[in-house]
Amino acid sequence: MDFTHLIKLVKLWAKGSKLPGPPCPSFYGHSRLFSSENITDFLSKSHEKYGSIVRLWLGPTQLLVSIKDPAVIKEMLVKAEDKLPSTGRAFRLAFGRSSLFASSFEKVQKRRESLAVQMNGKLLERANAIPSKVVDCVMERIDSIMAKGVVDCRSFSQHTAFSMLGSTLFGDAFLAWSNAAVYEELLMKIAKEACYWASYSIPPFWKRGFWRYKCLCTRLRCLTQDIIQQCRQNHKFSQLNQNSCNGATKIGRETATDAVFSSGGVMEDDLFLAELDGRLNKNEPCGNTMGVMFHGCLTTAGLIGNILTRLVMHPEIQDKIYSEIMMVRKRSTKSEVQNIYEMNFLLATVYESARHLPAGPLLQRCSQGQDLNLKTGITVPAGSILVVPIQLVQMDGSSWGNDASEFNPHRFLSKADGGSYLEQMVPIAGATREVVDCTDGPLVLNDPNVNDSFLPFGSGKRACIGQKFAILGIATLFASLVQHYEIRLQPGSEDDPKPTMNNCVLQLLPSPKIVFVKRNC
Ligand code: HEM
């Protein structure tokens, strides 16, 4: 250890010991006391005893600081720009260099901004967060599932999220791709092992399992290149057709700068993919594309599964969503997708599901270079691990009321006059600011982000850039699903599912078995 390292360490000890927290139980600190399964319980007890900021030693050189106060969390998430080195390592190990999921903010800033413009601009302007072709594809799958029998929420959600993200990134070619099932399986195998292999600060070259894992990652890269190739061919072909219909001879990007989306709403150009990976690394291409597929599929599948589980456990909520869909669609002349902005109860159910069960137990940050001075007067020393126990924050009675632990979409609705805040955020041609008259009277959707304790997509400098896309896409999907099918719990599958970490995300397990019953509409 060199001299500067030693000075840093002494500062960490000196400043860290001024923070409130339990005494260090051993040389290894608290690292052996909590695992990912009981981390929230452990932090809950520590916050009860020591207040809203708690420090824990994870060993002689690692200080963890957990923050539970919403105002301090907000400040911290804006000020602490870096992610933990292990997060960046997990993505780098699996997918190669990435300019989107690296731990240093400096490395991701530019790509984040340009991708956010794509995700939140063109994609949402068209109010076509997911194309009808994906919904058709999911519906077809339900028909084949019904022919076979039952399915569980988890596997249905996984396939669905995969179709959603795949067709958004790769266009129509993805839905017809013969390797889609293999791709999905590979991605899930990688998800099972990613955190384990990233927990080694030096890759364990001596372990056979590690090389097996690297093989899976290489196969995923080859398949990603294959689908990108097909996506480009598809695009060129459709351009050729379009040009020959127009009597033009020129093909390629010059004619397609505005054609990121086809008429069906799918991004059929390779501009989006080029935007994702740019000229990142010729030896390890597609790092960001694979990273987005990985993160997007796992988190979206988690939320879809979570909503499905709620709908089968609370049939009264499903009935209410169905009434809202029918009411909105009956009285509206707009296209199906635009109607989503008027389905306030459905959107509130999506928010409530995300509040009730976030993708993971912790948001994490660090500030490698300098100390973090918070307005409360507290200084978090450079190099500390900063965490937000989201489950605790999103279930806290002082932010969410006495019924914080209940599943209640109404907490995001109010009876005041006005339109949905989503409609105001994403202006749609011809959209009026109507409110939906559900059985309880007109309901207005509140912006969930006004509550600092709503954090399923993080917040601040490293917040999720897929939030609006995920919410609108998932709502679009459920609007079709619930309109055409009643989703019921398979008799005998009444176990009480509990939040459990599985494939890098929190899921309600055991996953209930469900049946789709076609409605007469
Ligand atoms: C239900 C679906 C999703 C959930 C719950 C979710 C959740 C999250 C969370 C909690 C973070 C960390 C935020 C923070 O630390 O403050 C994150 C980061 C991120 N998300 Fe998502 N996400 C979802 C879907 C997506 C999708 C569909 C995309 C893109 C297609 C996406 C792109 C990203 C990116 C690029 C980051 C990394 C930001 C950074 O490190 O700077 N997410 N997401």
TrEMBL record:
<comment type="similarity">
    <text>Belongs to the cytochrome P450 family.</text>
</comment>
<keyword id="KW-0349">Heme</keyword>
<feature type="binding site" description="axial binding residue">
    <location>
        <position position="464"/>
    </location>
    <ligand>
        <name>heme</name>
    </ligand>
</feature>
<keyword id="KW-0503">Monooxygenase</keyword>
<dbReference type="GO" id="GO:0020037">
    <property type="term" value="F:heme binding"/>
</dbReference>
<dbReference type="InterPro" id="IPR002401">
    <property type="entry name" value="Cyt_P450_E_grp-I"/>
</dbReference>
<dbReference type="InterPro" id="IPR036396">
    <property type="entry name" value="Cyt_P450_sf"/>
</dbReference>
<dbReference type="InterPro" id="IPR017972">
    <property type="entry name" value="Cyt_P450_CS"/>
</dbReference>
<dbReference type="InterPro" id="IPR050196">
    <property type="entry name" value="Cytochrome_P450_Monoox"/>
</dbReference>
<dbReference type="GO" id="GO:0016705">
    <property type="term" value="F:oxidoreductase activity, acting on paired donors, with incorporation or reduction of molecular oxygen"/>
</dbReference>
<keyword id="KW-0560">Oxidoreductase</keyword>
<dbReference type="GO" id="GO:0005506">
    <property type="term" value="F:iron ion binding"/>
</dbReference>
<keyword id="KW-0408">Iron</keyword>
<dbReference type="GO" id="GO:0004497">
    <property type="term" value="F:monooxygenase activity"/>
</dbReference>
<protein>
    <submittedName>
        <fullName>Cytochrome P450</fullName>
    </submittedName>
</protein>
<dbReference type="Pfam" id="PF00067">
    <property type="entry name" value="p450"/>
</dbReference>
<keyword id="KW-0479">Metal-binding</keyword>
<dbReference type="GO" id="GO:0033075">
    <property type="term" value="P:isoquinoline alkaloid biosynthetic process"/>
</dbReference>
<dbReference type="InterPro" id="IPR001128">
    <property type="entry name" value="Cyt_P450"/>
</dbReference>
